[in-house]
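can u do me a favor
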C-alpha cells in the first residue's frame, strides 16, 4: 500500500468509525410537551428558558413542513417522530471538562481520531467539542479570558450570562417563528457555543467547535450565539461529522451572530455529515454600522442539505461576504446558498458560490438579495459556478433579487459546465493520470474557500473533496 493510499484510508477512517452507545440519559423519540419538559429538567434550566422552548413547540406544531419550494430536496423520508432529540453522554461534569484526560475513554478516542487535540495545539485559541446532545469539552487560552473574551457552551451561558442570553437568544436574529425547523430547534436545542468578544478586542487565532453525532436515529440541535462588540474581531470555525447508519439522523442547528459597529466576524464551516443525515440549519447575522460579516461554508456529505446563511445589513456601511462550496454525489441533494438584506445605505455584499456534482448527485444555489427602499449606494455581486462530472448529475441556480432602490449597483453571473476533456488531456500530457487530473482541476475550482481557512483545515477540506470524488465517504 502506498503512502497516498494510507493517507486516504486514515482520512476516511477519521469520520466513518462508530463507538458503542454509552449515554447517561436519553429522551423518548418524537416531539411532545413532556419531552421538552424532560430535556429542560435534565438540564436544570431556569423557567424562562423552558417557557421559550414551549412557545417554540407550539409554533412548530402550527407550521407545515416545507414542500412547495421549486426544486427543493425531498424531505418525505424524514420522520420527526422517529428521531431521538436528546442524548446526554456519560460525562461526570454536566458542563463538560477542560482537560482531555478527564473525558471518558470512548469520547476521548473519538475526538483524538478526529484530530481535535492536535488542531487545538497548533492553530486554535479555544476549542469546544460536542458529543451527541451535550458539549463534553471546552477550553479557552488564558490570555483571551484575561481580555474578557467568553467562550463556553450554551448551557453554561444560560446559567452564567442570563441577561445576555435572554436579550439575544432567538429574539431578533433567528426567532422560532422564522421557519418550521427553527421552531423545532427552539424547542429541543441542546449544546452549542457562546462567544462574547468585548469592545476593541481582536482574537487573532480562531476558536473552534466540533459537533459529532455517534448514535443512530438521533437529532443534534446545537445553538451557536456569537456577540462581537464594537471594534472587535473573531474567527469561529465549526466542524461536523457522523458515521453512516441504516436509519436517518437529523441535524438542525441554529446560529445567531451579532456584529457590532466596526466589528469583524468570520464564521467558517466544514460539514461532513454521513449520507443518512438530513442537514437543515438556520444561520443568520445582524450587522451594525461599518461592521463586516463573512460566511465561509463547505457542505459535503448528508442525504439532503438545506442551508442558506443570511445577513441583515442593519447599519450604514455594513459589509457581508459569502463563499460557499457544495459537493453532491450519488443519492445526494445539496441545496445551499445565501441571503442578504441591505437595509441601510452604502452597504455591500458579495456571494461566491461553487458547486460540484457527480454520479447523479444534485447541487442547487438558492439565494436572495434584498435592497430596501432608501438603501442607496448599496452594492452587491453574486457569482455562481457549477462543475459537473457526468450527464446524470444536475446543477441549478435560483437567484432571487428584490431591488426597491434605484441608486444601487447590482451584478449577477452564473456558469455551469462539465470538466473539459481538453483540460484533462493537457494535465495527462504532463504526467498525471485521469483521476489526479480531475482532482487538480477541482482543487483549483475550490481554491477561493480553501485560501480563507487555516492551512490545517484547507488541507482537510481538499482531502475530503478527493475522497468524495472517489466515492469513499459515507
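np, heres the sequence
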Amino acid at each position: 500500500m502506498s503512502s497516498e493510499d494510507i493517507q486516504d484510508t486514515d482520512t476516511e477512517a477519521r469520520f466513518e468509525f462508530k463507538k458503542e452507545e454509552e449515554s447517561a440519559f436519553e429522551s423518548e423519540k418524537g416531539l411532545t410537551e413532556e419531552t421538552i419538559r424532560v430535556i429542560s429538567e435534565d438540564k436544570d434550566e431556569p423557567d424562562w428558558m423552558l417557557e421559550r422552548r414551549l412557545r417554540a413547540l407550539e409554533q412548530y406544531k402550527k407550521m407545515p413542513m416545507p414542500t412547495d419550494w421549486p426544486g427543493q430536496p425531498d424531505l418525505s423520508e424524514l420522520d420527526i417522530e422517529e428521531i431521538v432529540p436528546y442524548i446526554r453522554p456519560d460525562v461526570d461534569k454536566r458542563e463538560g471538562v477542560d482537560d482531555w484526560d478527564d473525558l471518558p475513554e470512548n469520547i476521548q478516542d473519538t475526538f483524538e481520531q478526529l484530530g481535535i487535540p492536535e488542531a487545538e495545539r497548533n492553530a486554535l485559541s479555544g476549542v469546544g467539542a460536542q458529543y451527541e446532545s451535550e458539549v463534553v469539552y471546552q477550553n479557552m487560552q488564558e490570555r483571551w479570558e484575561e481580555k474578557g473574551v467568553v467562550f463556553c457552551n450554551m448551557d453554561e451561558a444560560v446559567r452564567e450570562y442570563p441577561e445576555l442570553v435572554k436579550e439575544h437568544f432567538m429574539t431578533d436574529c433567528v426567532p422560532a417563528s422564522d421557519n418550521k425547523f427553527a421552531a423545532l430547534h427552539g424547542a429541543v436545542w441542546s449544546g452549542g457555543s457562546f462567544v462574547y468578544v468585548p469592545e476593541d478586542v481582536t482574537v487573532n487565532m480562531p476558536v473552534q467547535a466540533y459537533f459529532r453525532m455517534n448514535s443512530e436515529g438521533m437529532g443534534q440541535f446545537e445553538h451557536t450565539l456569537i456577540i462581537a462588540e464594537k471594534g472587535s474581531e473573531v474567527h469561529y470555525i465549526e466542524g461536523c461529522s457522523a458515521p453512516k447508519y441504516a436509519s436517518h439522523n437529523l441535524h438542525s442547528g441554529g446560529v445567531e451572530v451579532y456584529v457590532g459597529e466596526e466589528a469583524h466576524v468570520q464564521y467558517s464551516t466544514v460539514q461532513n455529515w454521513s449520507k443518512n443525515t438530513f442537514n437543515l440549519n438556520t444561520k443568520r447575522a445582524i450587522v451594525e454600522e461599518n461592521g463586516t460579516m463573512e460566511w465561509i461554508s463547505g457542505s459535503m456529505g448528508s442525504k439532503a442539505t438545506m442551508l442558506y446563511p443570511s445577513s441583515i445589513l442593519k447599519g450604514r456601511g455594513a459589509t457581508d461576504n459569502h463563499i460557499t462550496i457544495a459537493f453532491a454525489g450519488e443519492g445526494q441533494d445539496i441545496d445551499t446558498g445565501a441571503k442578504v438584506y441591505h437595509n441601510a445605505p452604502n452597504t455591500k455584499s458579495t456571494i461566491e458560490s461553487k458547486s460540484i456534482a457527480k454520479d447523479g448527485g444534485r447541487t442547487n444555489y438558492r439565494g436572495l438579495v434584498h435592497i430596501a427602499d432608501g438603501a442607496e449606494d448599496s452594492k452587491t455581486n453574486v457569482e455562481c459556478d457549477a462543475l459537473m462530472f457526468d450527464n446524470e448529475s444536475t446543477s441549478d441556480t435560483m437567484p432571487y433579487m428584490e431591488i426597491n432602490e434605484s441608486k444601487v449597483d447590482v451584478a449577477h453571473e452564473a456558469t455551469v459546465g462539465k470538466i473539459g476533456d481538453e483540460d484533462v488531456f493537457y494535465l495527462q500530457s504532463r504526467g498525471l493520470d485521469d483521476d489526479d487530473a480531475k482532482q487538480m482541476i477541482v482543487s483549483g475550482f475550490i481554491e477561493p474557500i480553501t485560501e480563507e481557512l487555516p492551512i490545517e483545515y484547507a488541507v482537510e477540506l481538499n482531502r475530503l473533496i478527493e475522497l468524495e470524488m472517489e466515492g469513499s465517504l459515507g
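Confidence is low (pLDDT under 50) at residues 1-15. hope that helps!!
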